[in-house]
Amino acid sequence: MKLEAGSLALQAKLSAILAKKAKRAGEFALPFERDHFPLNVRHAFAGFDRFALEIGCGWGEFTRALAVQAPETMHIAVEKKLARVITSGKDQKRAGIANIRYLVLDVAWFFAGVFDTSQFDSITINFPDPWPKARHHKHRFISSDFVGELVRIAAERGRITFATDNYAYSREAMQAFEGEPRLKNIHGAYLAVSDIAGRPRSFFETLHRNEGALIYFLEYEKL
Q1: Is the CB of residue 155 less than 8 Å from the CB of residue 119?
Q2: What is the CB-side half-sphere exposure of residue 100 using CA atoms within 13 A?
Q3: What is the pLDDT of residues 89-103, one digit of tens each?
Q4: What is the domain partition of the chain in residue ranges?
Q5: How far apart, in whole angstroms, are the C-alpha atoms of residue 166 and residue 189?
Q6: Is 129 labelled as part of a ligand binding site?
Q7: pLDDT in tens, 118-151
Q8: Is 79 marked as a binding-site residue?
Q9: Three-class SS of residue 33?
Q10: What class does CATH assign to 5-222?
Q11: 133 is in an annotated binding site
């Protein structure tokens, strides 16, 4: 997730790749230029009252539903797959939704330092790949360092929500969140819930529920 100081060449190469993707991603995509970071969304979109970050927006159906529910909120949607961002932007334009911007970004490559401190009133991590095989667990990006970065960019009393259908991953993520002293589990220590009232359902949530899977939501508030 976080590149070491000795990896400046790799950092520059990855930045160049992501900058090219951003230019191809459509009118609603944020540029990826390292000189522009850390990004202060509160200054960049000063006309909005609240700011939300979604990590892993997929095809954007959840993001669009949230944006319609909360037009006073600017929604920043992070997605690593360029094709999904392009499609999401086109669907957003057809729907006439103005309060979504996309960042083409693999958080396993880049995340630390991308956003300024105390930016987001809500942060959602939606059904990340659980990499269920033991030999692939190293690819999971939820860690104590990652959670620390989420806390840094969350606003005071900001809420962080993690959603998965994988029980083992929910427990692993919970260990990372519960170990962060600046976070409080709003349902009680080490507790998850199976649904959140009023929350739109993403494609992946609907798919998992239709398959009979249990859904685990972890919700934390920044103290």
Answers
A1: yes
A2: 30
A3: 999 999 999 999 999
A4: 5-222
A5: 19
A6: yes
A7: 999 999 999 998 767 777 577 788 999 999 999 9
A8: yes
A9: coil
A10: alpha beta
A11: yes
